[in-house]
Design brief:
The chain has two domains: 2-244 and 455-469, Glycogen Phosphorylase B (Rossmann fold, 3-Layer(aba) Sandwich), CATH 3.40.50.2000; 267-447, Glycogen Phosphorylase B (Rossmann fold), CATH 3.40.50.2000. It is 36% helix and 20% strand. The chain has helices spanning 18-23, 26-32, 47-50, 105-122, 140-146, 198-205, 214-220, 228-233, 267-270, 272-281, 306-316, 330-342, 355-364, 380-387, 397-402, 420-435, 437-447, 454-469, and strands at residues 2-6, 36-42, 54-64, 67-76, 84-89, 129-133, 158-162, 191-192, 195-196, 208-211, 238-240, 290-297, 321-328, 347-351, 367-370, 390-394, 413-415. The strands form three sheets. The chain has a nine-stranded mixed β-sheet, with helices on both faces. A hairpin with a 2-residue loop joins β3 (54-64) and β4 (67-76). α11 (306-316) packs parallel to α12. The radius of gyration is 23 Å and the shape is globular. 49% of the residues are buried. The mean pLDDT is 97. It binds adenosine-5'-diphosphate and alpha-D-glucopyranose.
Length: 470
């Protein structure tokens, strides 16, 4: 079965968050199970992409209103990623150093999707399934099913995976001119509250809709940034399939980014150099338990609560260290920076994105904080388990599906609310746990054995693909 994944991120070539990790790993696992999976993303102007050897396999031009853009489809030649990677190269729109947050993002998303459609229609070998990720590629199911010039492929099943329903990519009707001719009686398929809404359009038009954890699917029927009614209405074609992680990339035994590699057997002693490196780099004491946070500093991640929770914790105890890695909301960044002076020696932060540092934190910290308000799946807690640090999570979405509290016979620390009280209380539980080094180490040895790899979930995707081809 040939599966085409369309996305704006794919690790290691383009990553802002978990979407990149998923699109960079699920295809490899699908191929391991006998699929022929390929991925198409934009050709960005980044070092990683520019250094690849690519061949142009298709060229065309597309219209966005009255503007015409030339584009080409490039194929990466070495095939080192475990799946074939293709790129849409549109010099003026996509060939830029960043992935998102340009004023013309709507034009960028639509032009990418138009180019992908032209390429599929013109290809001799068509995909059996088109799997779209998030709103950036959410118009594809509409294009496939409604647009006249793509009629020849209208029988190909489309799937939408919702990684985050907060972002929907909506735009106003003055850009309807970007959409190629279709039966105007069906214009309602694009609409949600008088805007063109690519995520809503995909939920309506895709043959199947998945979210990245079962609990998030349930939560979305209640709260989906305005799409809850639509998701309830379409719930027969919706499934929650829990994300997996890539056990090759995220493997403390071989991870080239960490200071010292370790195995399940020697993790207690060999994680130490990683912690020592972090503590030296960030002026912290390696004797104290190290609590870390890695992530986008946004409301959904509960990042705005962190400064107060850190303050409350550290005015009451100096027996711990806290390290934050992230970037996002400027006010949160400023408040996190401010705390450095107040709690020097016990607290530090690195504002920015640093893949290598994130790996060292997973390998060296003792606890990982995830006080998310919304967490469709969350990968950090699974990386934490794999690397032997205890996740402290708010039980929501995918966190609820992957972390069981130690009080319930599990292996993590769970709290109910995303607020200062619950975070501080959970940190205190962590401190107590850490005091009993023997139990703490036993727990570490237990969590690294948990298999959150794609092995299981990739099979669920294959089952879904097969059901659509019947
Ligand atoms: P989301 O996609 O909502 O940001 P996930 O938990 O699914 O959350 O995935 C986040 C991914 O991004 C993980 O691989 C995490 O390690 C990584 N990440 C997030 N912020 C940073 C950062 N500042 N530096 C390095 N890696 C980061
Ligand atoms: C989104 C979600 C995150 C999820 C990731 C990968 O960014 O916020 O919870 O893990 O997508 O599916």
């Amino acid at each position: 079965m040939r599966i085409l994944h369309t996305s704006f991120e794919c690790y290691p070539l383009a990553k802002v968050g978990g979407l990149g990790d998923v699109v960079g790993s699920l295809p490899k696992y699908l191929n391991g199970l006998g699929c022929e999976t390929y991925v198409i993303i934009p050709f960005y102007d980044t070092e990683k992409i520019n250094q690849l050897e690519c061949e142009t396999i298709y060229s065309g031009s597309l219209n966005l209103g009255t503007n015409t853009f030339d584009f080409s489809i490039k194929k990466e030649k070495s095939n080192v990623f475990g799946f074939q990677v293709f790129f849409v190269d549109i010099n003026k729109l996509l060939f830029r150093p960043g992935i998102y947050e340009y004023p013309d993002d709507t034009e960028r998303f639509i032009s990418f999707q138009l180019a992908v459609m032209d390429w599929i229609v013109s290809s001799e070998t068509k995909p059996d399934i088109i799997h779209c990720h998030d709103h950036h590629t959410g118009l594809i199911p509409f294009f496939v099913s409604q647009v006249e010039k793509y009629q020849s492929i209208c029988e190909i099943p489309t799937i939408l995976t919702i990684h985050n329903a907060q972002y929907q990519g909506e735009f106003s009707y003055d850009r309807l001119r970007y959409i190629p001719p279709f039966n105007f009686n069906n214009v309602g398929l694009l609409d949600w509250y008088e805007s063109i809404n690519p995520l809503a359009a995909a939920i309506k038009c895709a043959w199947s809709v998945t979210t990245v954890s079962p609990s998030y699917m349930v939560e979305l029927q209640e709260k989906a940034n305005g799409l809850e009614g639509l998701l309830s209405h379409e719930n027969k074609k919706c499934t929650g399939i829990l994300n997996g992680i890539d056990h090759d990339t995220w493997n403390p035994e071989t991870d080239p980014m960490i200071i010292e590699n370790y195995t399940d057997d020697n993790l207690v002693s060999e994680r130490k150099p990683n912690k020592e490196w972090l503590c030296k780099e960030f002026n912290l004491n390696p004797e104290k338990p190290l609590f870390a946070f890695i992530g986008r500093l946004v409301y959904e991640k509960g990042a705005d609560i962190l400064p107060d929770a850190i303050y409350q914790t550290l005015v009451n105890t100096d027996d711990i260290s806290i390290l934050i890695l992230g970037s996002g909301n400027k006010e949160v960044e400023r408040r996190l920076q401010e705390l450095k002076e107040l709690f020097s020696g016990n607290y530090n932060t690195y504002i920015g994105y640093d893949e290598k540092l994130s790996h060292i934190i997973y390998a060296g910290a003792d606890f990982l904080l995830m006080p998310s308000r919304v967490e469709p799946c969350g990968l950090n807690q699974m990386y934490a388990l794999r690397y032997g640090l205890i996740p402290i999570v708010r039980s929501i979405g995918g966190l609820k599906d992957t972390v069981v509290d130690i009080g319930d016979g599990g292996f993590g620390i769970c709290h109910k609310h995303a607020d200062v009280h619950d975070i501080c209380y959970s940190i205190n539980r962590g401190i107590e746990l850490y005091k009993d080094q023997e139990s703490y180490s036993e727990l570490q040895k237990r969590i690294v054995k948990i298999d959150n790899s794609w092995n299981n979930s990739a099979k669920q995707y294959i089952k879904l693909y097969k059901s659509l081809k019947q």
